[in-house]
Write a sequence for this structure.
């Protein structure tokens, strides 16, 4: 069983390149795989290892970096290897909203612990906003939440502008935001505060921490939660979900989708079949052949880049 840790923290880093190198060296020595993003605003990532000690030591190392003692970490497990390699990247933003003036280290909404989340979103005066992308929302979300229907997080600010919230809304309504691991809704809360919303809240630790802390009998969640690794989704008990992934468009797909005439394994699904050219389909077929050959040799094929948002 593989141990998986999803982590992030907004904290000013004076020398991101130095931190980048130290994390890469340490995690490589621990045989840890996954993706870590390092920028001036902080650290964001998801990592995994077969050894629990390797993950524990990796988290201890990052937590001892200056400014990261209260690192936000969520744990889960996977029967299959979630990542095939380690990537540590330097980024302008550790989660891209497209505006570097938005700074959660200066202005941010109120954290809401998972134990208090149900009370907040049950309040009739609360507007619940899912800050994740549309394909994530499509397989699960909190009841009565708004779906901005974005394809990328950087589209979120434009969606907010289009809503034309009134001055009264900004002053009196509770704005409750959530995402997978907490990082996007935290940054979105900074944006909302900058735009004059007074009562802004975000779910601490995100959906994954909510799953960890709130009994399934008390849940307000419907469906499964998309995750950015080979598990594709997880259930409320944090076990692996029922979704697969289309390796043509990276969208989550069900077993029913696979019955469609527009499903080609490793190439296309009903959502993207009509959107890709024959040349693209041919290229994806070649890639799938390489994947199948690698499996026959008992090797892991290095496929498309893993995405990381949390």
């Amino acid at each position: 069983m593989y141990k998986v840790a999803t982590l992030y923290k907004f904290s000013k880093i004076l020398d991101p390149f130095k931190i980048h190198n130290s994390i890469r060296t340490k995690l490589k020595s621990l045989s840890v795989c996954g993706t870590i993003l390092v920028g001036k605003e902080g650290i964001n990532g998801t990592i995994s290892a077969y050894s629990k000690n390797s993950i524990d030591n990796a988290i201890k190392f990052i937590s001892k970096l200056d400014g990261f003692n209260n690192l936000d970490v969520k744990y889960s497990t996977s029967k299959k290897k979630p990542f095939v390699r380690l990537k540590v990247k330097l980024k302008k933003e550790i989660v891209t909203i497209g505006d570097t003036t938005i700074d959660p280290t200066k202005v941010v909404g109120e954290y809401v612990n998972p134990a208090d989340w149900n009370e907040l979103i049950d309040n009739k005066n609360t507007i619940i906003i899912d800050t994740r992308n549309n394909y994530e929302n499509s397989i699960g979300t909190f009841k009565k939440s708004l779906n901005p229907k974005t394809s990328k997080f950087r589209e979120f600010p434009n969606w907010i502008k289009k809503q034309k919230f009134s001055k009264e809304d900004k002053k009196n309504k509770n704005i409750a935001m959530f995402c997978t691991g907490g990082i996007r809704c935290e940054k979105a809360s900074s944006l909302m505060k900058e735009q004059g919303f007074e009562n802004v809240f975000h779910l601490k630790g995100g959906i994954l921490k909510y799953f960890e802390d709130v009994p399934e009998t008390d849940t307000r969640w419907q469906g499964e939660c998309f995750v950015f690794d080979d598990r594709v989704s997880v259930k409320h008990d944090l076990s692996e979900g029922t979704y697969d992934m289309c390796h043509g468009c990276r969208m989550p797909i069900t077993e029913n989708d696979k019955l469609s005439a527009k499903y080609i394994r490793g190439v296309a699904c009903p959502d993207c079949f009509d959107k890709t050219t024959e040349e693209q389909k041919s290229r994806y077929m070649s890639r799938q052949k390489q994947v199948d050959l690698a499996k026959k040799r008992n090797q892991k094929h290095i496929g498309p880049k893993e995405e990381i948002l949390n």
Q: What stands out?
A: The two ends are 22 Å apart (CA to CA). The first strand starts at residue 2 and ends at 10. The mean pLDDT is 93.
